[in-house]
Every structure is written in C-alpha cells, then in structure tokens.
Amino acid sequence: MKRAVFDILRRGLDNTIANWPVLLLRLGEAILFGMIVILALIALIVPIVLSLGIHLANLESVEDLGSIAAILVEKWMIFAWMIAGAFALVLLFMLIHSFVEAGCARIAVDADRAAGASMEGNRSRFRVFTMDRWMAGAMEGGWALFAIYNVAWGIAGLFMLIPLLPTIALMLLFRETPEIAIASGCIGLVVSLMFIAVVAIVTSIWCTRAIAGWAARRQGARDALRAAWGALRVDLARHILVALALFVIAVAGSSFLSSFSFFAGIGDSMHRSMFHIVTMPIRLVSSVLSSAFSAAISTWFLAAYASIAVEK
Q: What's the pLDDT score for residue 125?
C-alpha cells in the first residue's frame, strides 16, 4: 500500500513528536561538534597560525590576506598538516554522526511499525523511544552508516568534478588571453556551483533513503545503497515531493527564527555595544531554537522516509 505524500509527512511528523528525546540527542551531537571544533582550534590551529606570525587582528585589507596565503604556500608542510587535520576532523564528525543517525533510524523505523499501517489513532502509538533501543541501533548500524556516507559522498565527489575539470582546462588553455580565461572561469564556476548543489541534494536523498532501508531490513552498506537507488528509480516522485516539502518548511522556519537575531543585532553605532548586550538573551534563544528546528527537520525527514521503507 503506497501512501500519499501528505500521509507520509503526517506520519513522519507524528513519529518525530512522539519520540522527541531523539531531538535532544541530535542537539547534544551539535554541541559536541562545537566543543570539538573549539578544542581543535585551541590545541592545533591557533598555535600553528601564531607560530607563523599571523595575527587576525592585523587583517585590514586584501593585501594582508595575500601575504597570509604567501606564508602558507612557503610553509607548505604546515599547510598540508592543517589540511590533514581538517580532513581527520571531518571523518571524526562523520563517524560520530553515523552512530547518532543509526540510533535515530532504529527509533524511526520501530516507531512506524509499532503505529501500524492505519492512519487512524493517537500520536502516542508511535512512542517507542528508550535509550537502550537507541543505543542498540547506534551500536548495530554505526559502521554501516559510516560506510554508506563514505561511498555515497565519494561517488558524489567524483560527479562534482565533472564541470570543474573542463573549467580548469579552459582557463589553462586560454591563459594567454586573460579576458577569455576570466569569462570561462566565471561561467564555469556558476555552472559548477549549480551542478554541485543538484548532486548534493540527490546524494542527501539517496543517503537518507539508504539509512531508512538499513533500519528496516538491516542490510549492509552496499545492499542498502543499491536498494535505495532502486527505490528512488521506481518511486522517484514521492521521494522528491517529500524532500521538497520539508525543504520549503526548513527554509521558511529558518528564515523566521533568524529574523529574531537580525532585529536583535540592529542598533546605531553609538549604542550598539550596549544594545548587543541587552539583546544577547534574544540572540541566544534564537540560536538554540534554530538548532532545535534543524534537528526536528532532520528527524522528520528520516521518519518520513522510514514510513516509505516499511510500507507493505
């Protein structure tokens, strides 16, 4: 039985609200990421930058940025170390997120199954969250999801190079003619950004569907990705419409919440410092609400695809 898009969204929302502790875990993940970034900057990046004689307070013009780039190129070993550290940090974030997402996927699928196929009934029928259930899902599927992310985004990265390579080739080919080289670079950059955005959206949908499929059938990473791609080919319209609806809601909600920070930051130059101090609680609450809203959208998206994955 294939449900309508509205029914899928409704079940996903009911699932998300009924299992609201999942949102707290996602917020905890975001806080942990922030703490790791701060510690990495304090322990690694800042000492290296200061050792090179780079002071952010002295940045006043484009020429200063150029001099910093020249220093980094000259000290290429240190620059390579910084790049390697950033890459390792991304892998760490991906690994942590994989375990968190695996637990959330387990909750989403179990909740949809517990609610039954009928659209009638109280929202409480979706309530299945326990910390033990979430931990079991995280431990069981963390590495599988880590593989799903690496394979899917690795393939996506190769596709993202498709418009970039011809752009670079054209710029090198016409390097003796600056006007043509610049025009080729600008056009190629715009086309590349549009293409990369489309690939990123498709990959996000593919990954989420594969994660829901893993939670529903406990497949390996390769089988989950293959099954997800097959499901998208057969039922592309519903998957796209669900993702599009949640994207619109996400943009509207984020714009509304960010408006509080915008208005809290308005003030004339004479009283700006005092105004920022007074409005700091507003901006803090707005930031927390934005993070909570983002966590809710991510959970809703996964729960909606879980509803599709467990359909009979």
A: 94
Q: How many domains does the chain have?
A: 1
Mean of pLDDT values over 157-185: 81
pTM confidence score: 0.82
Domain limits for position 151: 5-309
Please compute the mean of the pLDDT values over residues 94-118 and round it to a whole number: 95
Crossing angle for the helix pair 178-217 and 236-264, to the nearest 10 degrees: 110
CB 23 within 8 A of CB 295: yes
pLDDT of the residue at 63 = 47
Q: Distance from CA of residue 35 to its chain's centroid?
A: 18
What is d(CA 123, CA 115) in angstroms, rounded to the nearest whole number? 8
Using the Cα atoms of residue 162, residue 166, residue 172 and residue 176 in order, give the sign of their dihedral.
negative
Per-range mean pLDDT, top range of 46-50, 73-77, 228-232: 228-232
Q: Give the chain's mean pLDDT.
A: 83
The pLDDT value recorded for residue 177 is 77
